[in-house]
Amino acid sequence: MPILHSIIHRIDTASGETPTLVPATQELAPSPALDDLLAGFNDAFNAKPKAWGHFVESTPDGELSSPFASELVDYLDESRDFATFTRDVARRIAELIGDHLSLSGDLLMLDHRVGDTRYLSLALLHHREGFGVDGALSIVPVRQLNLAQMTLAARFNLSHWRSDSPSRQYLSWTRDRGGKKLAEGFASLLGAEEGVDASGETRTLLKAFSDFVEKEDLPEEASREKTEALIDYASDQARRGEPMTIEALSEVLDEQQPKAFYDHIRNADYGLSPEIPPDKRTLNRFRRFTGRSGGVSISFDSHLLGSSVEYDEDRDRLIIKQVPGQLREQIKKR
């Protein structure tokens, strides 16, 4: 995961005061610790609820609407250096924080590659107090960057954005802290707008999959295998922070007929995008149905609904057709 450029600017907020930007005077030097920090950032960022989208274009010829996007173009075209570019970004983020929150943090920005793909990542990180052991084997206080706490974070697939035919999902950003106004302000600062509703698209994809399984009238074991294949593929893409593609998913579901699910999507009116950011919460709900009330706990694989398990909506009852052997024996003994 080569890091091309990296830097940290501090946004310092004393109690009740306007944030002060403490800009870095130089980029970070390459080190194993920096590589580990990037890996940790990627893991933490991929686990966050995110919006997916693209830069807003203010004119028909593609002119970008935000200073951030225009300055990013200048940086990529080498008419602006990385330190200057990131310092201007940090100044605007400090202003945004001052309008909505009272907190301090370190703005981490990295230009890096994963394989042939180039990314720009940024995150406003905070500290947590911990403990360490020094050379004299004494306990000492240690301040650590808290990767789990990202007030604001974003990642840009620069290779995809600058390609000849970019999708509308080359930009992703967090939206789970600080309230709606801060999230809207962050998107405006980036000049970003959502290109796809990740949770809605994931729900529609799962509905299309359920329809496909029903249409194919698959045996229960085959249905289970395809469900697991879908969840495994989607979860892997989520861990990598990459969208699912319908063509790739179709190949995963059936190596003998790799176009079967793709054709099912294409021939029906689901309105799905070719690339779908996986929403982990929706995927987790699809894998299993679970519930607990009044001393009764029920959990079963979602694909069993309609076959081994039926729901009688009129009388609000679950009908279990195949009682597990161990449970059956326990009931008989009572």
What are the key terms here?
334 residues, alpha+beta, 3 domains, two-stranded antiparallel ribbon, 14 strands, cytoplasm, Nucleoid_associated_NdpA, Nucleoid-associated protein YejK
Largest sheet at a glance?
Answer: 8 strands, antiparallel
Main β-sheet, spatial strand arrangement: 2-1-4-5-6-7-3-8
Distinct helical segment count = 11
Number of domains: 3
Strand content: 25-35%
Number of DSSP-assigned strands: 14
Quaternary structure: single chain
- Secondary structure class reads alpha+beta
In the predicted model, the low-confidence regions spanning at least 5 consecutive residues are none
Straight-line distance between termini? 60 Å
| H/E topology pattern | EEHEHHEEEHEHEHHEHHEHEEEEH
Shape descriptor reads: globular
Q: Radius of gyration from the CA trace? A: 24 Å
Helix content: 25-40%
Mean pLDDT: 85
